[in-house]
């Protein structure tokens, strides 16, 4: 219904974001995460079993922004409890639309992920939940996992530079440039950035 734009016309619609969200949810389903986290098989006295949403499971979205990934998940699976974690305030949030669902409980936690302790959120105690996130970085990065893979600090910075380059830059002028020049340029940028950081200290 999202891809066909059969949703509230007041919601902002950007096709690329809808495709990303649908892909994330599709992958969660393909990997069995949704079924294992939110859906339980319930059987009646006759032995007829069906999949049903578990009693009031929750979705916790880290770096939720406006919350449209969770909105899509709630629309598709009837989620009834939502926690949106985001440190900044946004306009045009999904909150208004989510609050219109009578059975849905919504809490927006305005906090940096670095400072969040889910065990301290009273309304999550004893509640099964699925934690998701579309855009996570900084404190949400699993530094131990990356180190265990053998990726050095320098390589990690190179990875972040390349991912930013792949997403944000205009590459038309880059096609004829040798890859070594990109690395040299990147190293120079990192060096200058470190020098600026030292000056501000």
From TrEMBL:
GO terms for molecular function: tRNA 2'-O-methyltransferase activity; zinc ion binding. SUPFAM superfamilies: S-adenosyl-L-methionine-dependent methyltransferases. Residues 19-142 form the Methyltransferase TRM13 domain. Its EC number is 2.1.1.225. The keyword Metal-binding applies. It catalyses: cytidine(4) in tRNA(Pro) + S-adenosyl-L-methionine = 2'-O-methylcytidine(4) in tRNA(Pro) + S-adenosyl-L-homocysteine + H(+); adenosine(4) in tRNA(His) + S-adenosyl-L-methionine = 2'-O-methyladenosine(4) in tRNA(His) + S-adenosyl-L-homocysteine + H(+); cytidine(4) in tRNA(Gly)(GCC) + S-adenosyl-L-methionine = 2'-O-methylcytidine(4) in tRNA(Gly)(GCC) + S-adenosyl-L-homocysteine + H(+). GO terms for biological process: tRNA methylation. Transmembrane segments: none annotated. InterPro entries: Methyltransferase_TRM13, SAM-dependent_MTases_sf, Trm13. It comes from the Eukaryota. The keyword Kinase does not apply. Coiled coil: none annotated. Keywords: Metal-binding, Methyltransferase, S-adenosyl-L-methionine, Transferase, tRNA processing, Zinc, Zinc-finger. tRNA methylase which 2'-O-methylates cytidine(4) in tRNA(Pro) and tRNA(Gly)(GCC), and adenosine(4) in tRNA(His). Belongs to the methyltransferase TRM13 family. This is tRNA:m(4)X modification enzyme TRM13. The lineage of its organism: Eukaryota, Viridiplantae, Streptophyta, Embryophyta, Tracheophyta.
